[in-house]
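re: ur question from yesterday

yeah so i grabbed the chain u mentioned. its 203 aa long if i counted rite. heres the sequnce exactly as i have it in my notes:
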Amino acid sequence: MDQIMIGKFIAACRKEKKLTQAQLAEKLGITDRAVSKWETGKCMPDASLMPELCELLGISINDLFNGRRVTMENYKEAAEAAMLQLKESEEKKNRLLLDMEIGIGIPSVITLLELIVVVAYTAEVSVFFRVMVIVVGLLQFCMYVYYAIRIETDAGYYKCKKCGHAYVPEFKDVFWAQHIGRDRKLHCPCCNKKTWHKKVITK
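ran it thru and got these structure tokens back, copy pasting raw so excuse formatting
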């Protein structure tokens, strides 16, 4: 998705409607700085604002995603390009989330191990202090496990090896499932078989 092209398109459509950035922002209930960021390609409008923005600019959602007005002649080509861009954007977001899971996991495990080693080899501290340090380390580790599984559940899909159905399971199902790495033994909502489901980035 070319944010620069989309930003220029938003600016052109706004000018066609003889609206300033401040006027458009006021109609959408946001700041003119947000509109400026869209038009310079720094970010995209929130999904919740897109229908109202398109209505104000006299364009379709498809036009917005393509950064130009889509005619009937090039509609199929533009729709396919927009779908491909959305898929690439989803894949990038999911990869980033899964990388984040590893990024917070490694420091959490290292911190827990360091705390245990420090407490075990420091003779001068009391038993109460040792216990408190280990409890704090375990609490931090439990928080990591919770957020890691939450990220893993929300990023991408699980694909059933029996029927090939890709879906997002419930958090509790992922939490309690037997697993090897990111592959988990789950009940498929499509074929209803309990098998190993592979973690995939996109459908």
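noticed a couple things. Helices lie at 3-16, 21-28, 32-39, 50-57, 61-66, 75-121, 127-154, 171-176. also The mean pLDDT is 85.
anyway ttyl
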